[in-house]
Amino acid sequence: MTRLSRSRTSAAVAATAFIATATPLFGAAAASATPAGGCQTATVQYRFVDAAGKPVGADWTSQGGFHQWSTAPGTVEVRLAPGQTVGEGCKYPVSLAEYTTEGPNWYTSGLQTLVDHATVYLGADDLPGADDAKRTWQKLTVKTPDCYGQIDLYGDDVIYDGGSGEGHGPAPYQPDNVVTPYHLIAAWNGGDKSCTPEQPNSPTPPASPSTPDSPSSPPASQPPADQTTPPATSTTPPPTSSTPPTTPDVPPLESTPPTSPAPSPSDSTPPLAETGSSAPVGLIAGGAAAVIALGAAALYGTRRTRRS
């Protein structure tokens, strides 16, 4: 083999080694910039079941809106609608809340008071399959109201009871147009009596006898006939003219459910390219530097051979 052939071979070997070592570094940088998660909004279905778990009334549905109950619903089964693709680890909170109200429908509900609440988390295991007859679906159960009430099915795990702490939200209040819960899937109203016991009427005190000799009180002054008292200005917002909007599409959970271990940072935010100690960047960069040095030495030796 001539000197020129040996020099070309040495240069080719050095270049090949450099490419082989540097490629994983570039590939690792590109792959680590891929966002984690990928959970999308999912559609929820529900149905009512009795104490024995048998369906009551219509089967699975995603129908929203407000409904009047003839018998207050107590247990609701929930699942994800068929035909969807759910990513691994994606969770969808669904809650059922029961409130006492001031009237039997949304327009007369007034300020609502939370009585009971339940939450489940749906995932890929809650999608229907080929053998659904033997499946057990997740259930939500709340107390059955015995007076005016409203039951809300909604797609998050916030408790809308008027509390100000973490995990709590404003209670529904129709006169002030507080249309919670958010992500409302469907709602039911009903009841045939007030939740507040009526106070007995107090007896009217007897009129005191008047003394004939005592002068009668002067009549109360009246405004002139051409003057009228201006009407009082109401500061209460007018009641809403429609029920709150509903949708069966539920957003994914942004953090791990309370019963699971604490989430890692990558569970809630898209990760950046890995540049910390967990990625072997230092080792790869060191190897690449060594190969570059060897390649430079080989090229230098080749030039010296040509000159000689």
Automatic annotation (TrEMBL):
Keyword Transmembrane helix attached: yes
Annotated spans, Disordered: 189-280
Biased composition (Pro residues): 200-209, 236-264
Gram-positive cocci surface proteins LPxTG domain mapped to chain residues: 272-308
Domain of life: Bacteria
Signal peptide start-end: 1-22
PROSITE patterns, A to Z: GRAM_POS_ANCHORING
Keyword Transmembrane part of the UniProt annotation: yes
Keywords recorded for this protein, A-Z: Cell wall, Membrane, Peptidoglycan-anchor, Secreted, Signal, Transmembrane, Transmembrane helix
Composition bias, Low complexity: 223-235
Transmembrane segments: 279-300
Record-given protein name: Gram-positive cocci surface proteins LPxTG domain-containing protein
Organism: Streptomyces doebereineriae
